[in-house]
Amino acid sequence: MHADIIGDVHGCYDELLALFKKLGYDIENGIPHHPEGRKPIFIGDITDRGPHSLKTVELVYDMVIKKKIADYVPGNHCNKLYRYFLGNKVQVKHGLETTVAEYESLAANKQMEIKDKFTTLYEQAPLYLVLPELQAIIAHAGIREDLIGRQDKKTATFVLYGDITGEKHEDGRPVRRDWAQDYKGANWIVYGHTPVKQPRVVNKTINIDTGCVFGNQLTAFRLPEETTESVPSDQPYVEEKFSYFD
């Protein structure tokens, strides 16, 4: 198995297609295919904040559910959009408002189609992926070694939100422990969630959310090669959104 794990897209559809092209994929009828059969894996947070969340949903749905040529694990923004589509009471802010605005601009039949596609995508997704053949675990915000193999609420919270303490910084960001510093495992843990300016490798973990939606770049981590590829963002650069970890 050869895989290309793609960091948080956040509706940056044009950059996603540019990344696929840089990775050697052919775009046929709007769907990326790699001539050597490499498998893309989306690391979550495919929507919100960026300009084309719904086009991104449709592309990921087609690749994962319809064509079965890609995998996807959900992120916290995916979880919130899912709860919104279920009719749960969620706050339409922190990026969700951009996806909802796109959604509300659609005709009723198209709204139903998008809702069905995303709901199916989310409900069929694993919380995280364990890939023994690549010696890798793919989890949106990472996973602590003692949680690997578990599917309980504590694990779900960690995978979706990171190692949060329950406290908040003055600017409203949640306080997170730098769990990667304590990881001693032999498998790669590939994650995103917290924007960093360059892919961040700590022990055998790599954060590939390089803040495309905040104007930096969109990154993929290639296995088994253990290499990264990135394309520049078309979005405005927002310095303060990047990680406070070194």
Question: How would the global form be characterised?
Answer: globular
Quaternary: single chain
Strand line-up in the sheet with most strands: 5-4-1-13-14
What letter string, H or E per element, gives the SSE order?
A: EHEEEHEHHHEEHEEEEEEE
State the CATH superfamily name: Metallo-dependent phosphatases
Structural class label: alpha/beta
Counted by DSSP, the helix tally is 6
Amino- and carboxy-terminal Cα gap: 32 Å
CATH architecture: 4-Layer Sandwich
CATH hierarchy, class: Alpha Beta
CATH topology: Purple Acid Phosphatase, chain A, domain 2
Major pleated sheet: 5 strands, mixed
Number of strands: 14
Low-confidence segments: none
Domain count: the total is 1
DSSP helix fraction = 25-40%
Which properties best describe this structure?
246 residues, alpha/beta, Purple Acid Phosphatase, chain A, domain 2, 5-stranded mixed β-sheet, globular, Calcineurin-like_PHP
Describe this structure in words.
The protein contains 6 helices and 14 strands. It is α/β, with parallel strands linked by helices and 246 residues long. The protein has one domain (3-241): 4-Layer Sandwich (Purple Acid Phosphatase, chain A, domain 2), CATH 3.60.21. The strands form 4 sheets. It has a 5-stranded mixed beta sheet. A 5-stranded mixed beta sheet has the order 6-7-10-12-11, with no helix packed on it. Strands 2-3 form a two-stranded antiparallel sheet. α2 packs across α5 (108-123) and α3 (76-85) packs across α5. The protein is globular. The two termini are 32 Å apart.
